[in-house]
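A reminder from the course coordinator: this example appears on the midterm review sheet, so study it carefully.

Given structure:
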C-alpha cells in the first residue's frame, strides 16, 4: 500500500543519500500511525504502508523493530525508528518543507505541551478506552462495554479542557501555522469526535471544533482518514 507523492528515490535529503521509500508499519485505525502518515503527506513524501495486526506485533520479526510490540514504526533506508513523537520530529527534521516546529521558544513549548498531553493522557484516558473500544468492537462485530466507556467521559472533559485552553483563539495549537502539535493531536481528536461521546462533549468546545474542522480540510488529513466509520 502506498501513500504520499512528490519525493523521488535516489535523491539527497539534508545531505543524506536516500535509496528507497520510507516504510510505515502501522494499523490504518491507529491515531498514532495516522500522525506519522499525516506528517509524511505534509512533507509530500512518497511512502509505503505495511499494515500490522495485533497478532503480528507479537512475532519476532516485528519485535525486532519495536521491542514493546506497538506501532507505528518507520524505516527510512537503513534507519529504523519507533515512538510517534520521535518519528514525526525526525520527518520534520530530515525532509524539506514548511517548518513544523515554531521558531519562537514559547510557541515551541506549547507544541511540546500538547504532544505530551496526547501521549501521556489523551491516548490512555480517551482514545483507547472510548474511540478505540468502539472501533475495535465494530471491526470484530460485538457490543463494547458501555459502562467502561461512560466511566472515561470525565477524563475526556479534563483532556479537552486542557487542550482547548492551550489552543485559545489561535488557528493552530502553537500559533498561526500547522505544527507537530496539530499533527499529533488531530488524529486523536478526530477519532474521538466520531464517537457519540465525542460529538456530545465537543459541542461544549466550539474552539476545538473549529480547529478540528481546519485540520480535517488539509490534504494530509483527508488522505489518511480511518477506514472504520463509527
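Designed residues:
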Amino acid at each position: 500500500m502506498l501513500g504520499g507523492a512528490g519525493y523521488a528515490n535516489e535523491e539527497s535529503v539534508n545531505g543524506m543519500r536516500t535509496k528507497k521509500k520510507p516504510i510505515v508499519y502501522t494499523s490504518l485505525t491507529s491515531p498514532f500511525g495516522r500522525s506519522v502518515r499525516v506528517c509524511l503527506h505534509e512533507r509530500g513524501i512518497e511512502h509505503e504502508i505495511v499494515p500490522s495486526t495485533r497478532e503480528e506485533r507479537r512475532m519476532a520479526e516485528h519485535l525486532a523493530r519495536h521491542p514493546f510490540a506497538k506501532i507505528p514504526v518507520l524505516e527510512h533506508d537503513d534507519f529504523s525508528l519507533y515512538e510517534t513523537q520521535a518519528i514525526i520530529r525526525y520527518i520534520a527534521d530530515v525532509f524539506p518543507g514548511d517548518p513544523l516546529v515554531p521558531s519562537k521558544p514559547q510557541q515551541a513549548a506549547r507544541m511540546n505541551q500538547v504532544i505530551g498531553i496526547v501521549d501521556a493522557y489523551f491516548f490512555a484516558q480517551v482514545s483507547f478506552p472510548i474511540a478505540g473500544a468502539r472501533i475495535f468492537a465494530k471491526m470484530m462485530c460485538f457490543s463494547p462495554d458501555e459502562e467502561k466507556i461512560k466511566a472515561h467521559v470525565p477524563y475526556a472533559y479534563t483532556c479537552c479542557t486542557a487542550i482547548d485552553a492551550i489552543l485559545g483563539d489561535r488557528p493552530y495549537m502553537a500559533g498561526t501555522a500547522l505544527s507537530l502539535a496539530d499533527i499529533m493531536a488531530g488524529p486523536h481528536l478526530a477519532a474521538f469526535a466520531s464517537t457519540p461521546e465525542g460529538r456530545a462533549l465537543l459541542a461544549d468546545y466550539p474552539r476545538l471544533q473549529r480547529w478540528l474542522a481546519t485540520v480535517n480540510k488539509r490534504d494530509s488529513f483527508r488522505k489518511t482518514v480511518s477506514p472504520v466509520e463509527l
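The longest strand covers residues 47-51. The chain is about 55% helix and 10% strand.
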